[in-house]
Amino acid sequence: MGEVYRNAFLNIGATGAVDSQEGCFRERDYREVFRSIIHKEECLAHLGEGSQSYRLVEQDFMRDCLLTQPLLKRGWVYQERLLAPRMLHYGSQQLFWECRDMSVCESYPTHVMAPLELTTLSSLQKGLEGDEDEAMRRVRGLYHWYSIVEQYTSMALTRPEDKLIAISGVAQQYNKTLLDDDKYWVGTWQSDLPGGLCWRVKGGKGTRPKTFRAPTWSWASIDGTILGPSQLQETTGRFLVSLRQPMIHYVDESNPYGPVTSAELEVQTRLVTVQALAQSPNDDHDDDGDGDGVSYVLSIDGVEIPNSHWYPDETVESDETDVTCVCFSTGKHGLWGVTVKLLTQDSNSETSDDSKQHDAEDGKEDALDMAGLSIENEGEEKAPGNKEEDDDGAVVIYPYQMYVRTGAFYIAAADLDDEEWCCPVGPFAELFAVDLDQEEPFFLV
């Protein structure tokens, strides 16, 4: 369907309709459509010009009156609007027009408003055409990709399992026009690793489905508004991690933009276990603009790490929880990475030992299902479609431990003027120091 909308001449939307029963046409209040004109008589400052007429244009009029329409809150419609070269909206009160050059409406039919950001992919491509520096064009392309992800993940999907499918057309076209020669890995771009793994959930209130939809290192694995890793993109320093090309198994192997059955990313770096402490809104820690009033800092043995922030993927019930940090990048701005936990799930049931064992096995099976993995009869974990056989037909088991992502963390630098600075954690520098030759690899699933 992505090609249908991309190659269409005009896309017409019943944008003001709540459902298919309402259609395009409705009764409306014309006083809300045709705004008042202000007539100014000739004055000493404008002698000889006669009387003049003006319209007062609200700066956020298009955003407030168009983006709040029912149709534009639906996830599937997002890529339809983004791929179409031009779109005519039948809103609840008036008509709106969008294309790569302008946005107009009945209230302001002759006042050419600047297009809303990310109105169409063609308008985004036009905005990047002036970048002669290919590297800067790619950086801006990645920045806009996370703006797309943020908008898309804030919308509703009737079938949450469509998370990857409903944005696949945009990803494919983005790959062709803005990030050519790049590889798309379940919502993330190869050229943006490891930084692209450091997305975070707005408010830390995401929800992961119990059945597998995407690997936990992908934003597509969680329901909630996703914010891109903007701070990491400002970091100039060195990487603290070694990543190998992920092993991704697609529902349709000919479509690398569609749904997947499993995906394992091999990671080699240091794992550091610390504590995350919840801070009340009155503490001297902001919530990084998420607006949830709760923030988290990292500590080691009760000693708080200065300038540290933890962004959980899902709601955390406890005020203190252990987290395992995976360090990705360090530089003059700070240290960035994600937090993980081992792919197991213990039972808290206070029943018999047999019941505990049964519940623990069920819990682990649920956890593996969520990661797209399965338990063989002999009890060993394998990824479906990821089994290999040697010349004798014996199954080869991957030896690494498997972890799932639980959040992202950031430790800001104390001294931004120190160009030689390479670790933000002061007395904790030795703990976070990474020697890749000494670290054991593991799978992030």
Number of helices: 10
Oligomer: single chain
Strand tally is 26
Mean pLDDT: 78
Q: What Rg, in angstroms, do the CA atoms define?
A: 26 Å
Sheet with most strands: 12 strands, mixed
Could you provide a short overview of the structure?
With 445 residues, the chain is of the alpha+beta class. Helices cover 20% and strands 26% of the residues. Strand 4 and strand 5 form a beta hairpin.
Helix-strand blueprint:
Layout: H1 2-6, E1 11-13, H2 30-33, E2 37-40, E3 52-55, H3 61-66, H4 75-83, E4 86-90, E5 95-99, E6 103-105, H5 121-128, H6 134-153, H7 165-177, E7 184-185, E8 188-189, E9 200-201, E10 226-227, H8 230-233, E11 237-239, E12 242-243, E13 247-250, E14 260-268, E15 271-279, E16 295-300, E17 303-304, E18 308-312, E19 320-331, E20 334-342, H9 353-370, E21 374-375, E22 381-382, E23 388-389, E24 395-396, E25 402-412, H10 429-432, E26 441-444
Parallel strand pairs: 1-4, 25-26
Antiparallel strand pairs: 2-3, 4-5, 5-6, 7-8, 9-10, 11-19, 12-14, 13-14, 14-26, 15-16, 15-19, 16-17, 18-25, 19-20, 20-25, 21-22, 23-24
Helix pairs in contact: 4-7
Give keywords.
445 residues; alpha+beta
How does this model look, in words?
The chain is an alpha+beta fold. The protein is 20% helix and 26% strand. The chain is built from 10 helices and 26 strands. The strands form 7 sheets. Strands 11, 12, 13, 14, 15, 16, 17, 18, 19, 20, 25 and 26 form a 12-stranded mixed beta sheet that branches. A 4-stranded mixed beta sheet has the order 1-4-5-6, with no helix packed on it. The longest helix is centred in the first third of the chain and has 20 residues. The protein starts with a helix and ends with a strand. About 10% of the residues have low confidence.
